[in-house]
UniProtKB/TrEMBL annotation:
Pumilio repeats lie at residues 170-205, 206-242. It comes from Citrus sinensis. Keywords: Repeat, RNA-binding, Translation regulation. The lineage of its organism: Eukaryota, Viridiplantae, Streptophyta, Embryophyta, Tracheophyta. InterPro entries: ARM-like (IPR011989), ARM-type_fold (IPR016024), PUM-HD (IPR033133), PUM3 (IPR040059), Pumilio_RNA-bd_rpt (IPR001313). Residues 106-349 form the PUM-HD domain. The keyword Secreted does not apply. GO terms for molecular function: RNA binding. It comes from the Eukaryota. PROSITE patterns: PUM (PS50302), PUM_HD (PS50303). This is PUM-HD domain-containing protein. Residues 1-81 are annotated as: Disordered. The keyword RNA-binding applies.
Amino acid sequence: MAAKNRPETNKPVKRIFAKTEPSNPASKKPKLAGSKPSEVSQSKDFKKPFNPDKRKQKPFKSELQKTDGNKEKNQSLTKRELRLRAKELAEARKKKRKRHYDLELELASLWEKMRQRNIAKETRSKLISEALQKMKGKIPEIAGSHVSSRVLQTCVKYCSQAERDAVFEELQPHFLSLADNTYAVHLVKKMLDNASKKQLAGFISALHGHVASLLRHMVGSVVVEHAYQLGNATQKQELLVELYSTELQLFKNLVSIKESRLVDVISKLGLQKASVLRHMASVIQPILEKGIIDHSIIHRVLMEYLSMADKSSAADIIQQLSGPLLVRMIHTRDGSKIGMLCVKHGSAK
C-alpha cells in the first residue's frame, strides 16, 4: 500500500511495448512503441552498419564509376577493369624481364669476342659499335647490372672518343645514383679516367651538396676520392670546402674560393669557428665509425680539423684513430702528419 501512495515522480520508468502483432508469427519478440514499422521490416538494411564515408574510403573506385549505367554494373565493370589492368601490368613486367635477359645474352656473346687479346682492332671496333647500338637508351639501367656493366666497361675502354662522349651524355643525369652502386662504380671511375676537362668539371659540380653523404658510403667514397685525385687545385678545394660548413654545402657560389687553408676560408667568409668545428665533427664521426679512412680527401679534412680544434675535441679524434685506423692513413702526406700529431699529443696508452 505504501508503494501505491508514492508520487508519480518517484515511479521507475518502464518500457511500454506496443500491442501490435508481429509481421512474422514465428518471432515472439515484442516491438518497441517508438520504432517505425518501416525501419524494423527492412532487416537487410538493419543488419548492415551505416557508413557515410564509404566514398571517401575508396576514392579510386568513385573515379572509375562515373558512368551513366547502373551502379552495380559499374562496380562489376570496375573490378573487371582493375583485374585486367593488373594482368596487363604483370605481362608487361614479364616481357620487360625477358627482353632484358635476351639483351644480356646477346651482350655476353659479343663480350666474349671483343675482350680477346688476339682480335683485330677493326673487328673489335665493329663488335663494340654493335654492342653500343643495342645498349642505346638503356645504358643507365645496364650500368647497374652485374653482367651487362662489364660489357659496357669494355666498350668504354676500347671505343672511339665520339662513342665515349655519347655514353657520357647518357649517363650524366644518373651519375649520383650510380656513384653508390656496387657494380656501376667501376664504370664511373673508367668514365672519369677518359673524361675531358669539361666533363670532369661537370661531374664535380654535380657532386655539390652530396660530398658528405657519399663519403659516408663505402662505394660512394671511392668515386669522390677518384674525382678528388683527378681534379686540379680549384676543383679539389670545391670538394673540400663543402665539408667545412653548412652554408658552403647549401650555397654553390660560396664554394668557388681560392683559399686552401681552413683558417683563411673562415676569415674571408666571416664564418663562426665553433659552428665550423661542430659541422666538421658531425661529418667526421660517422666516417671514422664506419672505418672509411683510406682516402686522401678524408686525411685532408682530419688535418684541417686537428689544426683548429681544442685539446678535448682533438683528443677524442686521436683516441679513435689510435690503432689499426692510423696504420691505414700514413701512406699519404696528410695521413703521415696526422700520425705524428697522434704520437705527439696522445697519451701513453
